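Hey, sorry to bother you again with one of my protein questions. A protein chain has come my way and I'm curious about its shape. It would help a lot if you went through both lines with me. I owe you a coffee for this, so here goes:
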Amino acid sequence: MILLTLDQLNSHDVYEFCYNMNYPNNWNENSLFFNSDDMVYLSPYIDKIFTEFHYYGPQKITISEWNCIKELCLLDREDDTNFFDTIDNWINYDPENNDFFWLLGV
């Protein structure tokens, strides 16, 4: 799974990791994005944490929920460590220091 910044996007079929201060706006310069095709790798773990995840709309995700998704995924997909490390760093730079973020769907 590959993360992109706004200036690296060449498609609009992406999910956006969005800070609360930017929600509900899309295409934020301080967001991270990943291709919607990569959701197939992440969705089995998301579905274990959320009974009704909003894949095509905004979804609030707590840091605790995200850590559970990360742990489950890395048990099967060790090669995705960099993906999760990058998101963890992004979370740590949240200007409001919230305990959640938004994943904005395609």
